[in-house]
Write a structure and sequence with these properties.
Layout lengths: L9 H5 L4 E5 L2 E8 L7 E8 L13 E6 L2 H13 L2
Antiparallel strand pairs: 1-2, 2-3, 3-4
Length: about 80
């Protein structure tokens, strides 16, 4: 069971780092998205555990956005744990 502490903390993502992992039969990627004129967000991408992120077709990737705060990290952990 993944917890928000497993996903590191806000300063990790502020450095431009990306967190990747796998669980059961899927992989996931957590990153900070900062677009001009918008508040930063977390982007969680879930994709099949067949090949790496770069080789997975976009059609097979599921993207979910969360607030860029500690509650967002908690929600990301819950989304990963509840993914079917």
């Amino acid at each position: 069971m993944l917890t928000s502490k497993d996903l590191f903390s806000i300063p990790y993502y502020n450095k431009g780092a990306v967190f990747t992992g796998s669980q059961r039969d899927f992989r996931f990627r957590v990153e900070k998205i900062a677009e001009e004129d918008k508040s930063p967000e977390f982007k969680l991408t879930i994709y099949p555990d067949k090949v790496c992120y770069d080789l997975t077709p976009d059609a097979e990737k599921e993207e979910i956005f969360f607030p860029f705060d500690n509650d967002g990290l908690t929600a990301i952990a819950e989304a990963i744990n509840n993914h079917k």
